[in-house]
Give the backbone structure.
Amino acid sequence: MNPRPSSLIRSRLLLTCAVLFTAPLSACAPAEDADGAHEPGARSEEALTGPGWTVLQASGPAPIRSIIRRSDGMLLGPRSSGHEIEVWASTNNGASWFRHGSVANNAAVDFGDVTMLRIPGTTTVFCAFREYSNGQFRITVTRSNNDGNDWVYDSTVVGPVSRFVGAPFLFVRANGDLQVYYDSEELAAAKGYPGHQWVAMQGRIGTSGAWTAYGVVTVSREKAAGALSREGMPTVVQLGGDRLMVVAEGVEPFPTGGARANVIHSTQSWDGGRTWDDTMRRTVYQSRIHAGTGRRYNAYAPYAIRVGNGPVGVAFCTDEDKTTAPDLSSTPPDQRQCHVGYVSTTTNFETWSGTSAIWTGSTQNYTPGLFERSLNDVIVTIDAFFGNQRVMRRP
């Protein structure tokens, strides 16, 4: 049976605890380059280096993975507690958090993979998430017209379907179109690859209406003959004008040492996500090989942002610090051992740095999320899987 990576196993879990971290390093949507240049500003490359990360918040509640800034400056973010999508807020730039209502609550539905996006210059906030009920999956979008105080149903992007769809990521294209990127076994099966999982995208003209403006776009997949392609957990950054990058988790297309480890890929689009350039596909990070088994360690659950309008930074989980054999990519995240690492683009958007550690204080972690509080000042959030604890760090 094909291995099932954490981007699928994750959907079955109730993610009830998170670690949060911070660092001076950009918000989810970076400022657009005025001239649409293809290279980042060199001035920002140094912003990602530093002696390490320190604790900002040692414990307490907070969002998981996704944070936005409201029009009044308050931070807001979601987390799923299984049958409810909670909203958490901070009035002190993430140093502490308090409960601020909920997006959805239904005992018959398993909610997960929650993400938020505020439309710049407005009080409109969208929240997208995965629903699982009666053996079927769907991706749902809700909307708040008052900065996240109240929520209404907006639309269903895809579903209900029996094959997995999930891990949505909301993105506003430079022309104002709202897009949603997501994991899709459904798309892969429809194209003749059952058992595979690809990253799909659907979009709107503007921020309302049907999700049909782009059709269903195949964003990220492995195309080598005979390869297994299971990719998901996408995040998207704007590199300048309509040049976009998506970063996603995957598995090795062919086994190393008899197993397929999780690896992290990126690919790019030159036309705002309508098509994706396979020649720009890169391996963002793959872990070392364990000498005893010949298997590769895992790199998974990535989250990417553009930092300081310069390089792209990616936080991710990895078990490569273990001395024992790597975890299988099919192991549920709460049973894995990992630390949280960080890589960034170097002199352009096509090469990547070596890894540095963000968090090594626990070995059961998941779903890091990045958010830029101000220019080059980044918060890292991590689901810690231990006693509902959260930590925030900054170099």
